[in-house]
TrEMBL record:
It comes from Halobacillus faecis. GTPase that associates with the 50S ribosomal subunit and may have a role during protein synthesis or ribosome biogenesis. This is GTPase HflX. Its cofactor is Mg(2+). Keywords: Cytoplasm, GTP-binding, Magnesium, Metal-binding, Nucleotide-binding. The keyword Kinase does not apply. PANTHER family: GTP-BINDING PROTEIN 6-RELATED, GTP-BINDING PROTEIN HFLX. PROSITE patterns: G_HFLX (PS51705). SUPFAM superfamilies: P-loop containing nucleoside triphosphate hydrolases. Belongs to the TRAFAC class OBG-HflX-like GTPase superfamily. HflX GTPase family. Mg(2+) binds at S209, T229. It is found in: Cytoplasm. Residues 196-357 form the Hflx-type G domain. GTP binds at residues 202-209, 227-231, 249-252, 315-318.
Length: 410
């Protein structure tokens, strides 16, 4: 199937850094390719402020129209969120379909959602985005006769569409509420069982799913595409000391994520706020990795997860051309495809935890097998000795300061 030809358009604010502008443009290109489009031309304009009606000036729109005609492109994508009026006016001027960055991201998400919840969330975000963009917005909808406050016979198709969409939005919100409640129950159970949770976060395409799959031997979707993972997956993994933890793979972050999507994926991202520990995966080979790192840290802050212990893993060291200087600490520079490097990550998680946790020594009689198992599962045991004369085990290790088992340690 031939790919759809696309013209990309971006406005550069004079105060925006060139690197940030270029990286955002490259991201738009990757997004377009992820959505099966082929970029045939990129048009940029330096412009102080956005034109309220047409976003760019008349001359630029003419240039876009000619470029689209010359390249036989069927679609123009703007690297910014356009208002409903701007979208309509630009489409009228350039004569081909026009969408903005937000709609592109929503389309990709729609193609990627696997679970019922993921699909509902994307549909909700799409409808919320579409509602103000139905044609004819802003004009008073005709209501012929019928007196004040009644709908009258002259209801337009537009109003019917709107009511239909609004009903669907309300319906999805109700269904999502149920899913969120179930998820909260599930989280509560995990908390009661004192399961230790590690969330992998990071910019889209940093290698999160690859790490997740190798460490948990699972089959989550991994591909060199933006937003390969949409639905959070949780699996058990074992740290080198034998300590068991739950690992969650989360949706990839991106700069300028559409607001409707942040709201829709709140519950997906909330997995992160429930975590006890965060592994922040960064694509070290990306030219703009520092900006990407900051984007993720800001989003974590916004979600209220900024205070959690965090290990930054700089991935893709095999693609680095020069010496790499980490931007955050504690950190490791690795290639998650390398089994030795994956072990280093797991050891480093334990190292960071030891600094956060309480050190303990405890003696467990051999007859208390269940208690011994609990210490193995819920704490990091660094040494274990069996004393025949006392018939029991002397354990030395580290435990979460608020874990119920801690009360049993004298």
């Amino acid at each position: 199937m031939a790919k759809e030809l696309v013209v990309l358009v971006a406005r550069k604010d004079p105060f925006e850094q060139e690197e940030r502008f270029q990286s955002s443009l490259e991201e738009l290109q990757s997004l377009t390719e992820t959505a099966d489009g082929e970029v045939c031309k990129i048009i940029t304009q330096k412009r102080d402020r956005v034109h309220p009606a047409t976003y760019l000036g008349e001359g630029k729109l003419e240039e876009i129209k000619e470029a689209a005609e010359d390249a036989e492109a069927e679609l123009v994508i703007f690297n910014d969120e356009l208002s409903p009026g701007q979208l309509r006016n630009i489409a009228d001027r350039v004569g081909v379909r026009v969408i903005d960055r937000s709609q592109l991201i929503l389309d990709i998400f729609a193609g990627r959602a696997r679970t019922k919840e993921g699909k509902l969330q994307v549909e909700l975000a799409q409808l919320q985005y579409l509602l103000p963009r139905l044609s004819g917005q802003g004009t008073a909808l005709s209501r012929l006769g019928g007196g004040i406050g009644t709908r009258g016979p002259g209801e337009t198709k537009l109003e019917t569409d709107r009511r239909h969409i609004q009903r669907r939005i309300d319906d999805i919100k109700k269904r999502l509420d149920t899913v969120v409640k179930q998820r909260e129950q599930y989280r509560k159970r995990r908390k009661e069982n004192r399961a230790f949770q590690v969330a992998i976060v990071g910019y889209t395409n940093a290698g999160k799913s690859t790490f997740f799959n190798r460490v948990t031997d699972s089959q989550s979707f991994e591909e060199d595409l933006l937003f390969a993972t949409l639905d959070p997956l949780t699996r058990q993994m074992s740290l080198p000391s034998g300590f068991l933890a739950l690992l969650s793979d989360t949706v990839g972050f991106i700069q300028d994520l559409p607001t409707t999507l942040i709201a829709a994926f709140r519950s997906t991202l909330e997995e992160v706020t429930e975590a006890d520990f965060i592994v922040h995966m960064v694509d070290a080979s990306h030219p703009d990795h520092i900006q990407q790192e900051k984007t993720v840290l800001k989003l974590l802050d916004d979600l209220g997860a900024g205070q959690l212990p965090i290990l930054t893993v700089y991935n893709k060291k095999d693609l680095l051309k020069e010496d790499f200087i980490p931007h955050s600490f504690p950190s490791l520079t690795v290639s998650v495809h390398d089994p030795i490097d994956r072990k280093r990550v797991l050891h480093k998680i334990e190292e960071v935890l030891k600094e956060e946790w309480s050190e303990y020594d405890v003696f467990v009689p051999a007859s208390e097998g269940k208690r011994l198992q609990q210490f193995k599962a819920y704490s990091m045991i660094t040494s274990i000795h069996f004393y025949e004369d006392k018939e029991g085990y002397a354990l030395h290790g580290f435990i979460h300061p608020h874990h119920p088992l801690k009360h049993q340690i004298l």
